[in-house]
Amino acid sequence: MENKRLKVAVLGCGSVGSQVVRLLMEQADDLTARVGAPVELVGVAVRRLDAQRDVDVPAELLTTDAAGLVARDDVDPVIEVIGGIEPARSLILSALGNGASVVTANKALLAEDGPTLFEAAAKAERDLYYEAAVAGAIPILRPLRESLAGDKVTRVLGIVNGTTNFIPDKMDSSGAGFSEALEEARTRATPRPTRPPTSRASTRRPRPRSGASLAFHSRVTASDVYREGISEVTAADVQSARDMDSVVKLLAICELRDDQWPCACTPR
Ligand SMILES: NC(=O)c1ccc[n+]([C@@H]2O[C@H](COP(=O)([O-])OP(=O)(O)OC[C@H]3O[C@@H](n4cnc5c(N)ncnc54)[C@H](OP(=O)(O)O)[C@@H]3O)[C@@H](O)[C@H]2O)c1
Question: Are 164 and 99 members of one domain?
Fold first, then answer.
């Protein structure tokens, strides 16, 4: 007997969504084999039907009615790659309420209102995956959530933003000053950032907080995070680090001190 067909709806077809759609169309057979059930793209919600796209989406799959798409009772899962707070939040909540699991890459929304989404997913008994929004290329959330769930994790640290990592790296390799490296980072970033990718780019996003929340079984909010950026780092600082056989990096660090175990944070 054929397993239940996965009817995938994708919300958004921009930089990320177009590649998700492309993979879903090009690798449908491979995905079907790996998932163990037929995977079918059934709709792609966009703002403009006539926009140029990096992928040829069959016209019958494109719609501007994202709310109608997530309300369909045969759609599951829903992939949200619109970005921003609204309508992404309402669409995700609606999808979960209608019984679909959701995958989102929405850093801004997770940072702004992650707990509302997690609670809705728990209440609906549906999955909410957001691995791509937190250190996307590094599988960190699932190991924290599942493999290490019974362990006492005391420290999580890492480079969590490619653009902010590029800047000190460029300063180190070329001797460039901060402004020069920032300008090149801006030119290379996709999409072009609308504000300087300095300290806050890392700390506003959900990555350090998601890591801390999962590692310490707690809810860590933006106000719990101490922020210090790289905008004051000079070429001379980078050279001084070099002289000590070191490099300057912007790290997100969450650490549980001995006097805070069992964790004193707000339980999830
Ligand atoms: N870009 C990256 O490198 C990257 C990396 C990791 C995570 N992300 C996250 O991925 C998400 C998407 O980013 P992106 O760069 O792909 O954004 P994007 O290029 O701006 O694409 C946004 C898409 O959403 C559609 N859209 C906007 N409002 C809509 C609405 N009301 N109803 C239906 N569709 C709507 C747009 O439609 P039109 O095309 O018709 O305008 C567009 O296709 C964001 O949450 C971002 O943080 C991005």
Answer: no
pTM (two decimals): 0.75
Q: Where is average pLDDT lowest: 10-24, 46-60, 74-88, 123-137?
A: 123-137
In tens, the pLDDT along 112-136 reads 888 899 899 999 999 999 877 766 6
3-state SS, residue 16: helix
Q: Which residues of 6-37 are buried (b: 16+ CB within 10 A; e: fewer)?
A: bbbbbbbbbebbbebbbebeeeeeebbeeeee
For ligand 1, whether the C-beta of 81 sits within 6 Å is: yes
Counting Cβ atoms within 10 Å, is residue 119 exposed (0-12), middle (13-18) or buried (19+)?
middle
User: In a 3-state reduction of DSSP, which class is residue 8?
Assistant: strand
Cis peptide before 58 (omega within 30 of 0): no
Check pocket membership of 239 for ligand 1, CB cut-off 6 A.
Answer: no
Residue nearest to atom 7 of ligand 1 (CA): 105
DSSP state of 125: T
Quick one: which atom of ligand 1 is closest to the CA of 109? 45
Looking at the fold, whether 256 and 162 belong to one and the same domain comes out as yes
| CB neighbourhood size of 42 (10 A) | 16
For residue 122, how many other CB atoms are within 10 A of its CB? Answer: 12
- Output the domain CATH number for residue 226: 3.30.360.10
Of 156, 157, 176, nearest to 166 by C-alpha is: 176
| 178 and 226 together in one domain | yes
Question: Residue 162 C-alpha to ligand 1 middle, in angstroms?
Answer: 19
- Full residue range of the structural domain in which residue 215 is found: 155-260
Same domain, 114 and 171: no
Domain count, the chain: 2
What is the per-residue pLDDT for 203?
A: 44
